[in-house]
Amino acid sequence: MNRLAVEPFAFLSELYISFWIPGAVLSAALAIKLPSILKLWRDPLLRAVGGLLLFACAVFAFAAPSTIAWTNRVTGVPNIAAPWVYSLLTALSASWLLLVVHWRNGLTEHSVQTRRATQWVVSVYAGVVVALWVLFALADVPVEQIRDLDTYYANTPFMREEILLYLTAHTVACSITARLVWNWIRTDGLDGWLRWGLRFLGLGYATNLVFSAAKFTAVAARWTGHDLDWLNTNVAPSAACVAATLVATGFIVPHAGQYLQDRWLFRRQHRSLRPLARLMRPVMGRREPLALRATPEMRLIRRETYIRDALLQLSRHLDQDLGRRSYDAALALGHQPGRAQALAAAVTILDALDTERRSADTDGTGAPDTSYVLQQIQAVSQVLGSPDDIKAVRTRASVPAESMSVHD
């Protein structure tokens, strides 16, 4: 009861997320982006993305309590991990600003305004990093603190200023980036996956502000003689982990989402061609080659090639006049032009198969234009699932010819 009275949000003091979780997600995002970064290294925007992800991975690798203890032990300097982690976090903050500078200007990345903004960000944040090390050298911090250094030394000369400096640099960069990202989300014409990626980025940067707010509150509480250290030791690190995971997801979603969408589209197109591929088996005299280990793109290409090869063999029996009559018949039956073309092509192909079965030894009549059939294979395969429509079109297309023969 007393604890709840003192800490209304005491349950948050038990909150803690492992630093290695966002580190793994950030590493995955870096691995996904790395090929394009290396291939297009001259692109400032991609360099900014690469720097952001690299610094983010470094922050969570070196900010983990076990790594902090290792850094202090290896160097033999108590708490030297603090300015090192602060410097990485400051460099990460600078990379956020560099990202938005180049992202905002798009194709005008070499403009004078962009170069000046880049120089300003690099100069200011490089100066912050230098100041962090100078302040640490002047501070007296002999007692090692792995997880609560900011509050433990909140009232220590020079270390107090160092803590305020890195938190201010982080908050300013995060606020600017979050505002610009949320403005871009409302921009018209964005790709759906890119918009979702920006939403995750916006949430990530907004959550980073929770990290700063928790840190500032805990430090300010120490100045006024209060103890809110749990904000520093539990809430702030957990907010940083959630924020980093959201930011990494924001970079992953546009690429992974588009990749999965393309794979799904290839598989759907491959499945939709199955009826036409089965129809072509008598022409080819064999099944289409299996490609179980091939990529979805390759399986689709092989099926399309199999169908087109069969149609080319069948082309000598294609009746273009029947195709025209079938198209007119499909329109007369109320079908839209696109579906009418597919139905007409299906009628023509089925008639050619019947002709080939009846007269396998004939050479046909010339070489008709088959481009209209070859361009319709997806639509034709789909209408094969509507045999009643094909039958109705075929019947109506044959009426004029039968009527003329009767009058003759």
UniProtKB/TrEMBL annotation:
The chain crosses the membrane at residues 15-32, 44-64, 84-101, 122-143, 163-182, 203-223, 235-257. The keyword Transmembrane helix applies. Residues 264-363 form the DUF6545 domain. Keywords: Membrane, Transmembrane, Transmembrane helix. Pfam families: DUF6545. The keyword Transmembrane applies. InterPro entries: DUF6545, MAB_1171c-like. This is Integral membrane protein.
